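Repro:
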Amino acid sequence: MRALSAAAAAALLVVLLGCGSSSAPHHHVHLTAFERRGKTLFIPACGICHQLADAGTSGSAGPALDTPWLASRVRETIADGPGVMPAGRVTGKDAAEVAAYVAAATAQP
């Protein structure tokens, strides 16, 4: 059997590994300071129940936040606490920061 050249072996490896791609699209989220603070609040307050890729959370009690959300809708949801979600888990400026973060993290690239 003939040995592969280094270039051929590298090309084969790239094909077999799929160039490191995955089926899920990734985009880098650029956050303002306000949104970054929202992220730090989201992780312990919301991430226990909600999955959000940018936050690295994998909660499953609430819906996954993988579709675009408007900040105003997030604020209403936080205030109302639909279903088993507790109302007002975060309030005031904290709620505004979390809402801004979720909107930024779920925006389409």
